[in-house]
Amino acid sequence: MTRATTTTAPASRALSPTLSALLGLAAAVLVLAGVYLAREIIGPLALAAVIVIICEPVRRPLERRGWPRWAATTAVIAVAYLVLAAMAAMLAYSGTAFVGLVRDSADDLRATADQLVAWLGSLGLQDQASDAAASLLDPATLVSFATSLGSSALGVVTAFFFVLAYVIFMAVDDARYTRAEERFGARVTPFVRRAESYNRSVRRYYVVNASFGLVVAVIDGLALWALGIPVPVVWAILAFVTNFIPNIGFILGLVPPALLALVVGGWPLMLVVIGIYCVVNVTLQVMIQPKFVSDAVDLTLTLSFFSVVFWTFIIGPLGALLSIPLTLLVRELLFGGDPKAWFARWLSGDDDAAPPREVGTA
Prior knowledge:
Elements: H1 17-37, H2 39-55, H3 59-64, H4 69-104, H5 106-122, H6 127-136, H7 139-177, H8 180-184, H9 189-227, H10 232-242, H11 249-297, H12 301-315, H13 318-321, H14 323-335, H15 342-348
């Protein structure tokens, strides 16, 4: 009788680095495709989360003074609603003033367009280029643009109500999550520290941008008012809002007042406006602010710029305003809990990232 031979199954081999990278990229593409399809839901959700993160420090001083949890949560919600109300008021005023300005300046816009066409024709440009230049300042084009913004305002209002609801839910949940370490002890301490670090980075980012944006808005608004540019408050608000868009916000805030200066005072006034914006905005927004932002959030300038383009493509215009917090979130999810990913964090701009100490080293 023969003895049955036992065979051991070969040990399963780990995936090669190349195959692991390909599988990771494929999973990332699927996740991003899902985010893209659900951008109308995820965008307001991300905005509400950022607002709650910004307003959350209101809670702790109140609780230390003996406020009950529900009262401190109500205070966070109230502050968040004040922030949303201020944003809505600025956008509503700016949109209304812009539409009224276009309608009141229709004749001037048409005359400026005719002059631009004549100038381009004198340079020997093709009729297509002249038509394109004329359409840029055509009142009908600008009114159509403003009307399209108005039609999309319904979607903005709908998203705004989602944000209002999300803020309530997240503020209530935040009161519960703040007691996770007290309840579960050291087991959740690493996660709590990572969450606190992320929240601090988001708050520092918006504090830095709001500070620089306020300075830029005041200087630009006063300069435009002194030059006689109509509705300087609108362009000051635009400069403040676009300051939250890294790197390219300066250009977005410059184009409308520059074109309006061309209509009001011709090329000389337009060049003066461009010169003021270049001196003020380029110095503050392009040269000085990015250094403060990169130090506040530990992201490289290249990654900060790329995140604007990337997240705008994924979730729409709101992605430009939320690009840095979303990039920080992705980095924390991918590398935050992995000590071996220290080099990836360092490449992304985290100067505190370092290889873990080996056991037994002094």
